[in-house]
Design a protein that fits this description.
- This protein is mainly α and 110 residues long.
- The protein has one domain.
- The chain is built from 3 helices and 2 strands; from the N terminus they run αααββ.
- Helix 2 packs antiparallel against helix 3.
- The longest helix is centred in the first third of the chain and has 38 residues.
Length: 110
């Protein structure tokens, strides 16, 4: 067996990362189901009130960033483990008088 391969197979940190990756993959699948539910709820709000719910917009923006963090970790684009090992993504949604946020007004704070 190649020494490099043997070293990689015996790497405790890599196996621990793989365990975290499996866990975050499952969490990301649950988060995507939650996103689907938020889509339906926001559609209903828009139909009834003619505008989406601001609190759900704030939550979904944080959830979107969280899913992105998980995907970056899963694809080895980041070594930082997402929430609960780091802070939940902070987002700010600025609104006009009618509580409708423009896409250019949505920003992420880290």
């Amino acid at each position: 067996m190649d020494d490099e391969l043997k070293k990689n197979l015996m790497s405790e940190s890599l196996w621990l990362r793989i365990v975290y990756m499996v866990i975050f993959y499952l969490v990301s699948q649950a988060a995507m189901m939650l996103v689907a539910a938020l889509v339906v709820i926001q559609i209903l709000f828009a139909l009834v009130t003619s505008k989406p719910n601001l609190n759900l917009k704030k939550f979904s923006m944080g959830l979107n960033h969280y899913v992105c963090q998980m995907l970056c970790f899963l694809t080895f684009n980041s070594d930082q483990k997402p929430y609960p090992f780091s802070d939940w993504p902070k987002v700010e949604v600025e609104v006009e008088h009618d509580d409708a946020a423009k896409p250019s007004e949505l920003s992420q704070k880290e």
